[in-house]
Each structure stands twice: as structure tokens, then as C-alpha cells.
Amino acid sequence: MKRFALPLGIFLILLVFLGIGLRLKPQEIPSPFIGKPAPAFTLTLLHDAQKSFSPKDMLGKVWVLNVWASWCAPCRAELPALMALTKEAAIPIVGLNYTDTRSAGNKWLASFGNPYQLSAFDSDGKVGIDYGVYGVPETFVIDKSGFIRLKHAGPVTEDDIKDKFLPLLKELSGG
Amino acid sequence: MIPELGNLALMLALCLAGVQATLPIVGTFQNNARWMALAGSAAAGQCLFVVLAFASLMASFIQNDFSVAYVAANSNSLLPVFFRIAGVWGGHEGSLLLWTLMLALWTLAVVLLSRQLPRATLARILGVMGWISIGFLVFMLFTSNPFERTLPGPVDGRDLNPLLQDLGMIVHPPLLYMGYVGFSVAFAFSIAALISGELDATWARWSRPWTLVAWMFLTLGIFCGSFWAYYELGWGGWWFWDAVENASFMPWLLGTALIHSLAVTEKRGSFKSWTVLLAILTFSLSLLGTFLVRSGVLTSVHAFATDPRRGFYILIFLAIVTGGSLALYAWRAPKIGLGGQFSLFSREALLLVNNVLLVVAAGTILLGTLYPLFLDALNLGKISVGPPYFEAVFVPLMIPLLLLTAVGPFLAWKNDSIQAVLGRLRWLALGAAVVAALALLVFKTSVMVAVGVTLALWILFATLWQVVQRLWHAPAGTSLRQRISRQPRSYWGMVMAHAGIGIFVVGVTLVKGMESAQDASLHVGQSVTLGAYEFTFSALKKIQGPNYIAARGTFEVRRGADSVATLHPEKRFYTVQKMPMTEAAIDRGFTRDLYVSIGEAAPDGAWLVRVQHKPFVSWIWAGCLAIALGGALAASDRRYRMGARQRAAASPPISSPVHSFV
Questions:
Q1: B640 vs B9 pLDDT, higher one
Q2: CATH classification of A25-174, choosing from 3.40.50.10610, 3.20.20.60, 3.40.50.300, 3.40.30.10?
Q3: Which chain B residues contact residue A17 at CB under 8 A?
Q4: Cβ contacts of residue B368 below 8 Å, gap of 6+?
Q5: Is A113–B329 a contact, with Cβ atoms under 8 angstroms apart?
Q6: Residue ranges of domains in chain A
Q7: Distance between CA B339 and CA B269 in Å, rounded?
Q8: Structure confidence by residue, pLDDT tens digits, B36-95
């Protein structure tokens, strides 16, 4: 009798998780990183293994760090919004190519468009861990002194650009 | 006016579903024949109204009635008419209506084709399907009504997502939903059996053709989606382990387990309670897939609706349907019993291993799909799960499964000896080993390619050998045609599906292991070489589509002095949705596809071009089609038509969808 109830038990546990999952808003989780300095790293560039990038290079500028991967379908969905962001604000977007391969990443950019000033190549995802990345895509806004000011999980939409990013970028660039 | 009629039709359908779900089941307890008989008429009426509602929505799309919010969100006056029709299921609300339509049609098919069932059983089955239908109709009417108006309506619509403007995408959702919803029949049969406590070989025989047809549709649906992704997403992949793909693949794996375990239940009376559990789980995963896609719990390009109210509703629905059935199972399954005994080495035992492997595979995919959600809910940190996980866990589970696919048909039911089976298979095993060694030593392939090809050949040769043996044993003088037609269709279905698996594995292995690609930045007139092929970018033309503008390249492909193909990849820009799209051009062949896609243009006029050589891709598609054909053959077996024929003598003939798939 007991073993026939096992599937029911497993299902109930699953149900509880799904219920909690429904109440979580992955886009709205406050990140412990906000207001903290952006973790330092040095990575080679996706399109050129000879050159490297470090957040230090961006000191004095307001910039956006966008975590993406060629295997990530939502990343593709947010491309038009990122393109729009580069057009509407003169803000550099740096890509963090997360747990990907160089060839797949470059192919992806070639096929769908490249909104990034450059992409840093985080093949084993270690930098992603430092940034608390739990799902691709994620987007960070980093201010002139290198502090994280906004974290957005999930694909960026045109509305997010209008309501969240542009006002903040304007404020940070002005100040 | 038409949308209001559609709305009214949905409400009437809901009323009839209410009748179908309650009175007949009450009737079975009170032995009230008239109430039980209501099930059929209520189902037919419900089907009529759902068809009306669907037709109303389609009419609104064809007439460009943008005052209907759903039409405005998913169509545009410039959109060609066949894409406007496809727009009906291009978004959340319409997908639900399509789901409901499929369910109504399947229910009608049960009414028409199952007259030989005992009245009480039929009443219970239709009652259960009525409850599912209520769930979807209420969901649609209260949270996602496709007929909602915004007055005054916009002048023009926001256009259908360009990704969906393609023939593959027109047929993909209906096929997939036919599969999902089709499993509701086996589910309803199981619940009916649990309620009555009667579960025997006849039950399995009734469930089998329905399950096979649903499984065939699901196979075709997944095939279409994958085929579409291959040429439409522009980077030449065909499977991405995206949450939504997984949502369709899990029911397929369990459905595959179900058709095998139903065979055991029918032939040997074993696996009874296990089969019932599989039927419940298969349909539950179809519902869970809907939950995952529609609730926005997981981020995916497919997730259109992120309205938490909707997610909450589907969760409650899932809790009632799956939770209720599993509770019923826990209570009633001990009564059904386990069925016949079998030894450790027998066809039953092997099929049990097959079932366990398939269920574990589905479980690992479920885990991978939900893992980010679990960890997040427990505050244990945040991770993302990509293809590396799925490939690492899925492949090791599939290798033993493929190995056994070839062996299974050689085993006798109930009891067999290992020596005897080894005797039957030793030459084949030797042959496969030689091929593997050759692949490794002569062609210097990677280990993975050698393993994959060897497994595929092992399945193909074993299946062929099995057929030869089956056909051999006949009285002398029997013609080949007689020998073939003497074997039941379900046997040929099995042969076809297993051979399809072999063909599929050849394709997957060789594409994964041997493909090559080259990126280049080309001006018109320049060329790029990939292996033996030379691709020349000979022309570029600007063209104007109905709702897009595009740059269309011409590529001449040559191999040495021979011209191989002329390809026309496009870079499109959909003007309403402001979305760029890459239309790849593919030269398909028996042993290889040549794939050209163009990306962005640089300021100096050079275009980023990617050329790919993909060996044996067509084998993937051919394998899928063979698997689906196997399902169709098995479903059309004469055994299942006996009842239909007896019935035809008693009542006027009815054209039956199940048989027309032959």
C-alpha cells in the first residue's frame, strides 16, 4: 500500500516547489551585489584570445555588463532591446560570454547581431559565479566608480529599457 | 459580432462539459443508463461549440478584426492569409483554444469509435475527459479569453512573431497538441479502470491504439519543431535542451515507455499497476509542460504569458488532476495487483529495464529543467543548467537502452535463456564490434562517433536479422508477399520504429561528431572554402516581402570543377516588429547538408557569412519520420479493428480517424 502512495508524495513535494517558484519573480530578486563594487576579473576577449578585458578598464564610465551565451534562447529575445539601448544611450555594453565556446559565441554574434562593444570570454563560468549569475541572461549597470547599481535577471525588454535602464543611466551619467 | 458568438460558444461548451463530467459518472454509481448515455451526446455537443468558437477566432483573424485584443497582438493587415490563420495559435489564448479543440475532437473520436466498450466504462472515460475540458474552458474564459475586445481597436495589429511566420511553425503546435491531448485518452482509460477496479488485457487493448496515435502525433510534432529550429533559427542546431523543448520531450519519453508497457499488459497481463501509473504520469507531464510554458516560472523565448494569476490557475489544475489521480492510484492500485510472473531474463524483464531507463531519462530532464527553480526556492544559490548537463546525463542512459532495443525482439516472453539469445545474436555482435574497430582504426573517428555508429548499426542489423528470421519460418511455396502480410501490422510498426531509431542515431552521431563550419567576412565576388567545397558570394539583391525587407545573397557552391548548388540565404528585417531574422539556405543531400547563413553587414560592405557542412542531417529527419510511421502502422493493426468491424455490422459505418492513418 505504502509504495503505491510514493508517486503522490513525490508529486506533492514538486507541487510545493512549483508553488514557491510561481511566487518568486526571477526578474525582481534584490541582488546582494547592488551598491557593492563590481567583482574584479581579467578575461580574454571572445573574438581575440590575445587581448583581455577587466572592469578596471571602464573606471570613469557608466557601463552595462550583459551575461549571455549562445545556447541561451532568451538571450536572443533580448537582442533587439540591447540594440535599442546602444542607440538611445551612448553607453557601452560589455558582454560576458558565459560557459560557452569561442566558436559558438562568435557565430551567434555574427548571425544575430552584436550589440556589445566587446565580449569577455568566461568559458568555465567562474566570473559568472562571482557576479551571482544564476541564469542567463542577466544584466548589470555599473557606475563611474565601479559600483553595481542595478541587476536585472532574465531578458531585457523594450519596456525595461524605457522604464528602468534609461532613467538610471541618465542619472548616473549626469551625476 | 463574430467574437461575441465565439465567446458564447465557449460558454455553452463549458455548460455541456459540466454535464459530460458529472451526470454520466453519477449514473455509473446509480446504474442509471440514461444518465450514462448522456456522456456521448454532451461530448458531441461540446465538440460542436468548441469548433464554432475556434472558427470564430479564425474568422476574426482572416477579417483583420483588430478590435479583438488577441488578433491585434498576433496579426497585421500585411500578413499573408495563411499566416493569419496560423496566428490563431500564435499566442497564449489561441494556443489554449487549440488545446481545447484537440481535446474535444479526441473526445468525439472516443465516442464514435468505442461503442463496443461497456456502457459504464465509456461513461467514466468521457466523464474524466469532461473534467479536463472544464479545466481548460474555465481557464480560458476567466483568465485568458481570446475574444476580449479593446474598443476602439487599433488601426493595425502588432504582427505575428517573425519566428513563427513559417510553414514548420504552422503545423508544429497542432501536431504537438494532438500528441499531448491524445495522452488524455489513455489517462481517462486508466482513471476509469481505477474507479471501477477492473483492469485486464482488454483494457490494455483498448488503450493501445489511442496511445500509439497520440505518441505518433507527438513524435511528428517534436520532429517539426526541431526541423523548424534547424533552418529558421539560423545557426544550424536542431535541439537546444530549451525548457520548452524538454517539456515536449518528457511526455514523449514516458509515452514511449507507456506503449511498451501496454504491450506487456495486453500480451502477458503483467505490469498492470505500473502501466496505469505511466499513463497518469505521461498525461501529467503534458499538463506540466503547459504549466511551465504558460506560467513564466521558467524564462524562455516561448513563455509568452507571465501573468501570475494564470500560473496559479494552472498549478491548481495540475494539483487537482495529477494529485487527484495519484491519490486514487495510491488507494485503488493495490486492488489491481501486479499481474503475471516472469523470470529475470525474459522479454518482460527487458521491457521493464526499457521502462526504467526511459522514466529515469525523463526524470533527469525534469530535474535539469526545474533545478534552477528548486535551488532558488530553497535559497541555495543560483545556477543555470545548459546543454552540457543534459548531454552528460542523457547519453549514458541512452546507450544501454539502444543496446537493448536490438535485443528485445529476440527474447521470448516469460522466460528465456541467456545462452540461447547470445547464440542468436553472436554474429551480429561480432559484426558490430568489427565495424567499431574499423571506425576507430581506419577512419580515425572519435570514440563517441564509433560508439554511436556501432550502436546504430547494431540496431539496424539486428532488426533486419529479426525480420529475415520471422519471414523464413513459413511453409515452402509461400510467396514473399504472403510472408510479409502474414505478420501483423503491429510487428511491422515495431520494426519500422526500431529501424527509425537506428537511422536517427546515425544522423545524430555523425552531425555531432563530424560537422564543420567556417566564418568569413565576404564582399560580393569573394569566396570561402570549407573542406572540398568552395562557396562564392556571387550576388546580393534587395528584395521587398509582404511585411519585411530583405537582403538576398546568391552563393554558388562548387566542388572542384563541378557546380553543386546555388543557394539564396536572406537577412530579413520585419518592419512591424522591428526584428531582424536570418533565413538560412540549405542544400539538402543524402549524406550531407550544405548550410549558408548571412549575418550583419560591416560598414565597408563586407557581409559576415557562415558556411557549414553538416553530414547526415537528413538521417535525423528520416529517422523521426520512420519512428512516427512505426506508430501509425502499429495503431492500424487488424486486432484493434476487429471491434470496429463488429460494430459496423450493427450500426451505420462511421469514418474513423484512427484507421485512415494507414
A1: B9
A2: 3.40.30.10
A3: 370, 373-374, 377
A4: B241, B246, B385, B389, B390, B393
A5: no
A6: 25-174
A7: 5
A8: 889 999 999 999 999 999 999 999 999 998 889 889 888 888 888 888 998 898 888 888
Q: Which residue of A has its CA nearest to B381?
A: A134
- Whether the model clears a pTM of 0.90, i.e. scores above it, the answer is no
Contact (CB, 8 A) for A17 and A27: no
Q: Which residues contact B384 (CB under 8 A, 6 or more apart)?
A: A72, A98, A99, A133, A134, A135, A136, B372
Q: What's the rounded Cα separation, in Å, for the pair A172 and A4?
A: 60
Residue with cell 543548467: B385
Q: Do B323 and A15 touch (CB under 8 A)?
A: yes
Nearest CB neighbour to A111, from listed B234, B240, B579: B234
For an interface test with B, which of A16, A108, A111 has the most B Cβ atoms less than 10 Å from its Cβ? A111
Cα–Cα distance between B244 and B550 in angstroms, integer? 30
Q: Which of A9-18, A55-64, B559-568, B608-617 has the lowest mean pLDDT?
A: A9-18
Chain B hits for A76, CB-CB cut-off 8 Å, are 301
Alpha-carbon distances, residue B600 vs A159, B521, B604 (angstroms): 25, 10, 11
Query: Who has greater pLDDT, B587 or B385?
Result: B587
The residue type found at B536 is T
| Mean per-residue pLDDT, B94-105 | 93
Q: What is the mean pLDDT of the segment spanning B207-217?
A: 94
